[in-house]
Amino acid sequence: MARTRASKGNDAAKKGDSSTTTSTSKSKYTLSPPSNSPPKIFILPKKATNEARIVSLLHPRYATPTRYLVCPETGFYEFTRIAAPKSTPRSWLIQTNGHETSGVDAETTSSERDASFGTYVTSGAELFVATPIDPLFLILPTLIDPDAKSEKRRYVSSDDHFDRIQEESPHLWEILRWGEGRVRRLLEARLGAVCDTVEAGDESVFRFSEDKLVTEVLSKARRMSTQPLPRSMEEKFVVKPLEAPVLGLKRQVITTTTTTTSTEAPAETTQDDSSNSASANRTPGSKAEASESQSSVSSTGSGTSLTSEASTAATPVTSSDVEADSAALAEALRPAIVASAEVISLQRLRIAFNFLCSSYVPASLVTLLQAKLSAQPEVNFAPLDNYISELNRLKHEAAAARSAGDFARKRMLDDEELAERAEKKRKKEEEDKRKKAGESRGVRELKKVNTAGMKKMSDFFKKKT
Amino acid sequence: MLEARLSQSMVLKKVVDAIKDLVQDCNFDCNDSGIALQAMDNSHVALVSMLLKAESFEPYRCDRNIALGVNLTSLTKVLRALQNDDLVTLKAEDAPDSLNITFESSTADRISEYDLKLMDIDQEHLGIPDTEYAATVTMPSSEFKRICTDLQAMSESVTIEATKDGIKFSCAGDIGNGAVTLRNYQNVEKEHLNVDIELTEPVSLTFSLKYLVNFCKAQPLSDRVKICLSNEVPLLVEYLITGTSFLRFYLAPKIGDEE
């Protein structure tokens, strides 16, 4: 995938039906007013043809209109927004010269426009990266009829399927006619991947099959989990949950290393960032992770890259001598159980599957998919489940041990409290003593007298006015 | 300002000794007619009322009303230094924060001077009406004291029953019961041993012996004690001090549970 810089001008040119005005053209020497549609920076795939367009389609998960890049030749791309966190604002300085041809997509752009475009400063340091997406997910919402059971679904033609989302995303209808039906054929091919198909005359009809969807998503998850997940995900969802408590050691300060990996595999970036951009309704944790990783990517001073092996990632690494130190520490702080490679890969697979489900699959299907997943014969999660139950037991024990330790801490607090209480008691006694000093023995004795049945003096004698 | 000199200084000591076991802090209200005191015990079932008339003092001067808030235990400590024949003089400013007490030895040239810190005491004053009691018994104060202490060994409360036959102190306790009956008694030679019972109607009331014994601490003040009873009103135990000065105790009767 080539890195290409495209200006807003290019962008607008690509949008066939775009009504938004493009950049403001002003004299070099006057300060132009801030544009209300500042240019945005896109990284577009080199292989996308000139016919590629940005269209609005319904997001498969959240059913909100979302921009996608659609190329009749090479398929669908989703945009991933990469932005610096709000706490560290950044800007883009954009300069284009008149002769620049900024990649394949820019060829259509008129050179005059480029010349007038000039230089730009944009405050939103956002970068939009187009990454391929399986169009299957985009048409998935059209297939689901939540009321109908799988046996009762009818075979219908692809047209009927597409019709169902026509109102919400008219662009889909539009793109189906592109490229002499290539897009349509592409979509139908993907439709076939998750549907039972029957040839009816010269047309094939489709019926949605959950089993096929599970297989499809699972194969995607498999591919995703063959290599370690993106670092932030790997750490949060694979390493941490599988990390066993260290027993036999009193207290362990785990300082997670802050060295950043400067280069991440492109696939990782894609996945990670897609989680960032896919929608606002994501778990805050993953969002924070994503933005964190972004800031780390953009930070220049990159330290030693850390191997994301489960064991070393968990142990504190402080010196540059990573290998030796981690080995020594791993020796010293041996956890109760260590996840085997099989368990780790299973966990990765599960996380990947769940990630795909939560990002691209309509919510109504997710529980169904997860239920189907556990019933899949080809994947056996038993080792992972056993490991996790064992882990939970260990964690329980560790928690119990620590709460025993907490008792000690509480005791100490209690000692303080005790001292405080003793002090209070002493003060009170002193006060009592002082009071008693002014109290004769006879008065004290009379306090003990049972005065039940005796009326108060004020009942007999009225107050003097 | 107040200036009061008391030749019979022991009266003051005895009065304070009699009250201090009933009341902790109290106001001595001084005005031109004398020094008065009214206070209740902590449970508010007993009341002590004292009046030392101006005639008891020589000289007595009190320009305006002064309330001397005194802790009786502290006053007792000061009065411990008082010797038998001493003259005692009380002096205080109009708005005093201390009471000056001087002891003058009548025989030796010795003057002891004490300043006692005073306190602000918020006390309610009860108006005590003059009551016609159904039964009034005048008897030797030592006799009354002995009866009370004897019966206290048996029980915590005593029933005083006044009839035309006499006055009967009876009690019933865990170990048994006991009673002391006094009849009218005239001794021409030793009048202080007389027992006079005046009765308009029979009375029977029950009282806490602890309180009665406490009252009896005023016994050194006087040979005679006057006990006045009426149904449903507090018992009055009166010790006469010199002249018309008095120390009176009131005690609420026990009603209901007579165990």
Automatic annotation (TrEMBL), chain A:
Residues 137-369 form the Ribonuclease H2 subunit B wHTH domain. Its main location: nucleus. It comes from the Eukaryota. Residues 18-34, 257-269, 285-315 have a biased composition (Low complexity). GO terms for biological process: RNA catabolic process. Residues 43-134 form the Rnh202 triple barrel domain. Non catalytic subunit of RNase H2, an endonuclease that specifically degrades the RNA of RNA:DNA hybrids. Participates in DNA replication, possibly by mediating the removal of lagging-strand Okazaki fragment RNA primers during DNA replication. Mediates the excision of single ribonucleotides from DNA:RNA duplexes. CDD domains: RNase_H2-B (cd09270). This is Ribonuclease H2 subunit B. Residues 1-41, 257-319, 421-451 are annotated as: Disordered. It comes from Xylaria flabelliformis. One of its GO terms (cellular component) is ribonuclease H2 complex. InterPro entries: RNase_H2_suB, RNase_H2_suB_wHTH, Rnh202_N.
From TrEMBL, chain B:
One of its GO terms (cellular component) is PCNA complex. Its main location: nucleus. One of its GO terms (molecular function) is DNA binding. Keywords: DNA replication, DNA-binding, Nucleus. CDD domains: PCNA. SUPFAM superfamilies: DNA clamp. GO terms for biological process: error-free translesion synthesis; lagging strand elongation; leading strand elongation; mismatch repair; regulation of DNA replication. It is found in: Nucleus. Residues 1-124 form the Proliferating cell nuclear antigen PCNA N-terminal domain. Residues 127-254 form the Proliferating cell nuclear antigen PCNA C-terminal domain. This protein is an auxiliary protein of DNA polymerase delta and is involved in the control of eukaryotic DNA replication by increasing the polymerase's processivity during elongation of the leading strand. Belongs to the PCNA family. NCBIfam families: pcna. This is DNA sliding clamp PCNA. It comes from Xylaria flabelliformis.
